[in-house]
From TrEMBL:
Descriptive protein name: Bacterial bifunctional deaminase-reductase C-terminal domain-containing protein
Biological processes annotated in GO: riboflavin biosynthetic process
Organism: Candidatus Roizmanbacteria bacterium CG_4_10_14_0_2_um_filter_39_13
Bacterial bifunctional deaminase-reductase C-terminal domain segment(s): 18-216
Keywords: NADP, Oxidoreductase
GO molecular function terms attached to this record: 5-amino-6-(5-phosphoribosylamino)uracil reductase activity
InterPro entries listed in its UniProt record: DHFR-like_dom_sf, RibDG_C, Riboflavin_Biosynth_HTPR
PANTHER family, sorted: 2,5-DIAMINO-6-RIBOSYLAMINO-4(3H)-PYRIMIDINONE 5'-PHOSPHATE REDUCTASE (PTHR38011:SF7), DIHYDROFOLATE REDUCTASE FAMILY PROTEIN (AFU_ORTHOLOGUE AFUA_8G06820) (PTHR38011)
Pfam families, per the entry: RibD_C
Pathway note: Cofactor biosynthesis; riboflavin biosynthesis
Length: 227
């Protein structure tokens, strides 16, 4: 597959935030039962591995880290990711950051690896339940990160949308339909229902066809560009 580097324009006061999700036609990004993962194809994997290779840092909320950190840490040490990093003239590894109020054994087990790779765990300050998006931005600014990939999951995406700082979404639609039963599936954004006058509106930047899948690249117009 021919992949062209993405250009991202960093806002003045914070890093550029981007994410990618793979969803079924009926909007499901995960089923909380075995047998449904992976949702996308190898081509989708190559696309999102390339996209992630642009990032100085990658951020996960706890549940996504518990489920995927082992694969993630393995994948960033594999040849595909390392080649992309070289092509993009990035240092071999990004900083990996996990947000949680409860850095328990389950999380530490998920982060254990044979590469000696260390994860940064950010926890809330002053008794609050969450790391605020501003605190995350302050941390990333301090570390000099300009491009930050938000891996997920849905509760973290909700917080970034609410703060109006999620600059780009790359959404792969897999040609599948999972259906749904209460509490069995998740969509890309959970834990919030935006009021009608606050519904985030994105602009379509491009459409990439990967055989039967399609990748939609959406950007959030900057506040100054909105009418
Ligand atoms: N299809 C896809 O492309 C895709 C992509 C990403 C994720 N996923 C899936 O999404 C699922 C997870 O989604 P989820 O909604 O259950 O969980 P999630 O968003 O990954 O994690 C939620 C948890 O993270 C912690 N957290 C979130 N924001 C925080 C903050 N600002 N500060 C501190 N802690 C914070 C909280 O737990 P504590 O307070 O207990 O720490 C919260 O309950 C996974 O199964 C993953 O596979 C799918």
């Amino acid at each position: 597959m021919k992949l062209t580097p993405f250009s991202f324009e960093k806002p003045a006061d914070r890093p550029f935030f981007f994410t990618s999700f793979v969803s079924t036609i009926d909007g499901k990004i995960i089923v909380k039962e075995k047998g449904y993962w992976p949702i996308g194809t190898e081509k989708d994997k190559e696309y999102f591995t390339f996209l992630r290779a642009h990032a100085d840092a990658i951020v996960d909320a706890k549940n996504t880290a518990v489920r995927f950190a082992k694969y993630f840490i393995r994948r960033i040490h594999e040849d595909m990711y390392q080649e992309f990093r070289k092509d993009l003239r990035k240092p071999p590894l990004p900083e990996y950051i996990v947000l949680t109020s409860n850095p328990d054994e389950e999380l530490h087990n998920a982060l254990k690896n044979d590469h000696g790779f260390e994860t940064t765990i950010l926890t809330p300050e002053d008794g609050s339940k969450r790391v605020s998006i501003q605190h995350l931005i302050d941390y990333l600014n301090k570390k000099g990160h300009t491009k930050v990939f938000i891996d997920g999951g849905p509760t973290l995406i909700a917080q970034l949308l609410e703060a109006e700082v999620l600059d780009e979404i790359h959404l792969t639609i897999a040609p599948k339909i999972f259906g749904s039963l209460p509490d069995k599936t998740l969509t890309m954004v959970e834990g919030i229902l935006f009021p009608p006058d606050k519904v985030p509106q994105f602009k379509l930047l491009s459409v990439e066809k990967l055989d039967d899948e399609v990748v939609l690249r959406y950007s959030l117009p900057r506040l100054t560009d909105r009418s």
